[in-house]
Amino acid sequence: MGKKGRVFSGARPTGRQHLGNYLGAMKNYVALQEDYDCVYSVVDIHALTTMETTQNLKSNTLDMVLDWLAAGMDPEKSIIFVQSHVPEVMELHTILSMVTPLGKLTDLPTFKDKVREQPHNINYGLVGYPVLMAADIALYKADTVPVGVDQAPHIEFTREVVRSFNYRYNCNVLVEPQMKVTEFPKVIGIDGQQKMSKSLDNHIEMASTPEEMNKRVMMMVTDPQRQRRSDPGNPDVCNVFSLHKIFSSPEEVKMIDRECRIAGIGCVDCKKLLAKNLNTHLEPFRERRAEFEKHTEDVVDMLNDGAKRASVIAKKTMQEVRSAIGLL
Ligand code: TRP
Predict the structure, then answer these.
(1) To which H or E segment does residue 42 belong?
(2) Whole domain around residue 105: which residue ranges?
(3) 42 CB within 6 A, ligand 1
(4) For atom 13 of ligand 1, which residue has the closest CA?
């Protein structure tokens, strides 16, 4: 109704979210709710492709959803649900697999990365990961998919599969989606080297207590050339400064930019200021999260309701798909 179209995005249940997740994805998800009809999914079946154990799957799902809600993803505005609660996606996955050349999947850079990362567990589901992702998007007839650039090959793949399906069954049932790249510079972890990620343990959790926050920020690697307090530093190569640019006031950023270069401010004071600003920034988030956490039954109800609403769309698409194929 007056909205620009339908957004679908999914994220694997990785538990508590970090600043990289927030700046790279969640913030965008929240903003898109105003202009688009949004469907957001915790893709727990995708997670199984890389999981050795499902021991933490439930708690990781809930923890991520708590962060989503606290950040402002709103079930009144969007459909928020767990992928496995709407099993039609697995049916569409199988159907789309029939119009997917196997070589296309094994050629994808994301697949090759996984082969390198988990050579002992190259399962069939891992090869089909992009087909399941295409099914996610196509099932809800999303025309817009907000993702990071690393997902570009998957979106291109989705477009091709949708086209092949429509061509093979001579119909126009599925929608070719557009990728909407999240415009945000890569958030580097506390190691000052690699992209912030939980698996590298270089992350800063949004839900950290102020004490945890201070500790993590103090661990951050700064300009490696700056050895002593009296050495001048270079903010341009310092990850603490990158975060100041996001979370501190323009005056503070200017001050640090100036003082660091002349050794007027040391790394410890610079980090203290960052931790303080991060804590101030995240305080409302923590309060909202604590509130949701007190009522996890309501959060589960909300997810069930999201699945019901998602299911209505999914069932309708599958009827059209079956009829286009000519299944009895
Ligand atoms: N592959 C995505 C990732 O790793 C997650 C995902 C699954 C997804 N299904 C999706 C993203 C559909 C967008 C749309 O980040």
Answers:
(1) strand 37-42
(2) 6-186+296-325
(3) no
(4) 9
